[in-house]
Amino acid sequence: MAFIPYSCQNIDDDDVAAVVAALRSEYVTQGPAVVAFERAFAARHAVEHAVAVANATAALHIGCLAFGVGPGSRVWTSPNSFLSSANCALFCGAAIDFVDIDPATRNLSLDALRIKLEAAAASGELPQVLIPVDFAGLPADLREMRALADRYGFAILEDASHATGASYLGRPVASAWADATVFSFHAVKIVTTAEGGLVATRDAALAQRLRLLRAHGMTRDASEMDGASEGPWYYEQQLLGYNYRLTELQAALGLSQLRRLDTMHEQRIALADRYDRLLADLPLRLPARLPDRVSAWHLYAVEIDAARSPAPRRQVFEALRAAQIGVNVHYIPIHTQPHYRRLGFARGDFPAAENYYAGALSLPLYPALSHAQQDRVAAVLRQALAA
Ligand SMILES: *Cc1c(COP(=O)(O)O)cnc(C)c1O
User: Fold this and answer.
1) Is 184 in the pocket of ligand 1 (CB under 6 A)?
2) pTM of the model
């Protein structure tokens, strides 16, 4: 039987034609397709500025830098995320810390955040930037975080790597509340440019800093220069930037993918609803449903309820893999990684994230997953949980 991955890219003939056209055009590095992709992405998410970069890790890095994160800064994020959500602070020489998750949403817990902020305010150790993560595509509690950010004076850099096309309080992610929002276009994500990322923001000055940081800190725009132009060749380096550009080939693919975002989102929603029905009676905690937000459904992550299931997660995982079903686990809590333990974190520091991880299982979910394949996943899972 054919292997069913947990996620995979969705490439059609229009995507192929778009990349070929870009390849035959005058530009292959940064040119008009990057600008068109940024504009289309910003329009779809109702946000003024979009800065496309090589990947979301680079986006998180320059996002931190644009907020002035450096040695002496503190950055907080969720332990239930991919490594980049925390690594970006370390890239800047800043200190990282975590806020435990809400077991229902698996997103950074508002209650834990409030408690930690109160303690940090008392000890003078408030964060400069908070990086909430929209886990599995479910938007974090951004409205309440905005109020806390205004009260305590930190910036919100939302990691929406899972959440392209999601909405919160009736508005697209990135259109309100966060100061800047990061997206990923890695092959397993909602839309892909093979590798790619983006920072969206409503702040024009922040967007300009992000553009400088994306390309060596260099400008050819006279309005951004210290000195007078010495001629048509003249450029200035204004700050220490990187080469984090997205290519024309990738942007052409992204632009083509974006045209199918809403269709693919509907397919993901329908499959998630179907999983809810197929799995309702199993000893699992299913993804949260909240009336005020629409998940992008990057992942359909379930949690095996150890109290009700005789089978441990490892056994269930291996039974599914043996049946050619590509389940996965998102995420090993970041603070338990050896690199982070060497920084002083320990198992037990963020118990809700650790408990969730102990039973977590991401089931296959992508637009082209057929009902027959989904039925097979549910049947094998049912059998494995009973064993
Ligand atoms: C995928 C992912 C990233 C990193 O994305 P890249 O584009 O691969 O660098 C960061 N954060 C989260 C939550 C992710 O899922």
Assistant:
1) yes
2) 0.98
pLDDT in tens, 116-125: 999 999 999 9
How far is 99 from 93, CA to CA, in rounded Å? 20
Enumerate the H helices of the chain as residue ranges: 13-23, 32-44, 56-66, 84-91, 110-123, 142-152, 204-214, 248-258, 261-279, 313-322, 338-341, 351-359, 371-386
On whether the CB atoms of residues 367 and 268 are closer than 8 A, the answer is yes
Distance (Å, rounded) from C-alpha 129 to C-alpha 134?
Answer: 16
For residue range 205-264, what is the model confidence (pLDDT) as tens digits? 999 999 999 999 999 999 999 989 899 999 999 999 999 999 999 999 999 999 999 999
- For the record, the structure tokens of 167 come out as 């909405």
Q: How far away, in angstroms, is 234 Cα from ligand 1 center? A: 36
38 lines ligand 1 (CB under 6 A): no
Q: How far is CA 260 from CA 97, 167, 231, in A?
A: 37, 17, 45
